[in-house]
Specification:
Layout (H helix, E strand, L loop, with lengths): L2 H4 L2 E5 L5 H7 L10 H11 L2 E8 L5 E12 L2 E5 L16 H9 L5 E5 L12 E12 L4 H6 L3 H12 L3 E5 L2 H17 L8 H11 L5 E8 L2 E11 L2 E9 L8 H15 L4 E8 L3 H8 L4 E10 L7 H17 L6 H11 L5
Parallel strand pairs: 4-5, 10-11
Antiparallel strand pairs: 1-2, 2-3, 3-4, 5-12, 6-11, 6-12, 7-8, 8-9, 9-10
Amino acid sequence: MTAVEQDLRLHSVDPCSDPRWAALMAGPGGSLFSSPPWLSAIVDTYGIDLTADVLVDAEGVPVAGLARARLDDLRGARVNCSPFADRVDPVADGGQWPRLAESLLAAGVPAELRVLHADAPLEDERFRQVGELAWHGTALDRTEEELLAGLHSTVRHNLRASQRRGVSVSLGDGLEDVRAFHELHRLTRKRKYRLLAQPLAFFERLQERFAPSGRLLVGLAHHEGDVIGGVLCIRWNDVLYYKFAASRPERLQVRPNEALAWACMRAGQERGCRLFDWGVSDLDQPGLVAYKQKYATEERRVRVLRHVPAGHDGSRAAEVGAVLGQLTALLTREDVPDDVTRRAGELLYGYFC
């Protein structure tokens, strides 16, 4: 550790309100999933206990940090650095990471984080990789003509098809836009993926926190008077995050997804974004990975890292996880009323963290 690193002071702060954390997240290492408005929406929806550790230099300037959620529920005590998020990279170099990791592991319970850019956690022998996800991004810092030419030929073909078939896309950020998207999102999760959806309250809180500053974008695809597809994007710094997407499978032949993606990427360009972040995809969903590859200029892997204290018995968490999976399968059956499935998501989604 250098003399400069020794002079750094560690502070535990509330990442939803502390100005030092806000300043760190406004810098080049900040991301949507560690941003104060995103974290406050999670806290208000799920009641999670969130803390951030910030390293501050002698002038009081924050230079490194990591937020974490301390959870203690029916799945047991644990720490998750990326609750309900694609990934969270610590803002830290190799010399700063040990101090953040020490605080992270101090509770003596299992700890997990997902990293895309950070190298220091990958080299920390106290963590082991337990999973891997695909991540894709599309560069937006080029002309619209260059952006279109960079898309796979099938995407360009499907864009022309969507226009011929009368698909239109509206872009908004109001509560009604969010609620219309969530209805489609909830049904897509149930009928296509047999999964529960996050409650509407979370989406409403995202709208409350991001829309007033022009950071929220809801795209809705319309065809013959119906909403047949939608996406919800959020801008943080100079990145537009493609966070949620949904569509009606029986109307996919008119290509709403391509029309939505193109409209949102163009909106990102107009708002000065350098990158369209497609988020993560499970590697056992090759169709989704292949779809994003047709747009992406960059593909990387998000590593899921976990620390398990010596002697820790993980059987309880495994048993509860299995029961939650069985409940999800039961509550997303076609013969279960949609309102019951919706209510199940409101009651259970907080345990999937």
